Amino acid sequence: MTQLTRRRFMQTTAAGAAASALGGRAFAQDTAQIRHFWWGNPERDRRTFAVIDIFNEAHPNIQVTGETVGFGDYFPKLTTQIAGGNMPDVIQHGYGAIFEYIERGAILPLDEYVGNTIDLSGIDDSAIQAGTFDGQLYALSIGANAHMAMYNKAMYEAAGITAGDGFDPYGWTYDDVKRIAVAVSEATPDGVYGTDDNTANWQNFSDFVVQRGGQLYNEDDTIGATVEMLVEYWNIWKDIRDAGGAPPGPASAGLVSADMADWGIVTGQTATTYQWSNQLVGVQALLQDPVGAAMFPNTADMVPGSYVQPSQFICLTRDTSNAEAATTYMNAFVNMTEMTNVLGLERGIPANTEARNALIPTLTEAEAASVEYFDGIRGKTAELPPPFPSGANEVEETYKRVATGVLLEQSSMEDAAQDFIDQANFVLSRN
Fold this sequence. Notes:
Layout: E1 32-39, H1 42-58, E2 62-69, H2 71-84, E3 90-93, H3 98-103, H4 125-130, E4 132-133, E5 136-137, E6 140-141, E7 144-145, E8 147-152, H5 153-158, H6 174-187, H7 202-211, H8 227-242, H9 249-253, H10 264-267, E9 272-276, H11 280-285, E10 291-294, E11 309-310, E12 313-316, H12 323-335, H13 337-343, H14 353-359, H15 365-376, H16 392-407, H17 413-429
Helix pairs in contact: 1-13, 8-17, 16-17
Protein name: Extracellular solute-binding protein
Family: Belongs to the bacterial solute-binding protein 1 family.
Organism: Pseudoroseicyclus tamaricis
């Protein structure tokens, strides 16, 4: 395999539109057994198992089985499967860490299947480019995604907070977060707080680095954050916590890697949580109160930190037992309207134009809010960065571990910040 260069990643694939390949090539009479593995939540799992049933009914020569775990368990299990040589045929992956798996040879290029079992004719060019690395297509985008602050509208309204009345969902600052969080905490029962504490939220911190004029990773694949950035960011959340807008540090430390069912907005512990936009549908499915959408908070100078990226990819693994059958399923997952209608927007805005148009009349209130959110953030986001280097997943886990120590006041912020930078650069240097 050609040595990959992370900075050469988004070249337009030479593969053009081809005739629809939902039928694929002829398979042997024996039924092909395909495994699909994804990280999920109750709503995602329900939808994905439903589309697997649709596919299996339409393709009697292929039988797909689904495997799902929570996000916190997904990559450790995938790592074990890679080591054992028994990865499922098809896996879900994210933009931030996919390069590492390509570089390790765990994910196969798809170019030889384009025009045969994979049809790209209806897929947005930007989605194709996002899955293209060193001129080869490795991944099909399941949908567009962006960072999103989700808030309980009923709790906000109880505190007199409504969008457009002292609250700009597309332009609020950390000062606004503190003000609103304290107001919500005061208007709700004891033990309920206005916002999650994002001290250990890697996604929010990654935005903050860009808002402060940096990049998460430097050109030489060293960490781009500085001690000063880390300390400033952690102090922002300490100030919100000390003002009563967020839970005490130990309570937040216990939720750093929680599954969706345990998020503060779902359990009622907090009114605001900070996740990915595609998760709005899943959160709303677990709540009776309506959920609103806002951007991650901004610094006072309003430099954008969030960006739009593929929500997740669907990828072909090195251990597939039948690449033609697997890519036929992958193609249907992004192109077959009967399946994309069931998937909806739970994984993000579809990359297929026909799929998007078919969804419009069927959107739930939460899905419509997700589409409205993407309209609202247009022109207010940062440029999509190159894929993160090998070791990025471990760097993220290192950050969460060190920041959890900050929540527990196990060391000074300055010492913790230097510790994270040293550990992150060590991880990156050996990958």
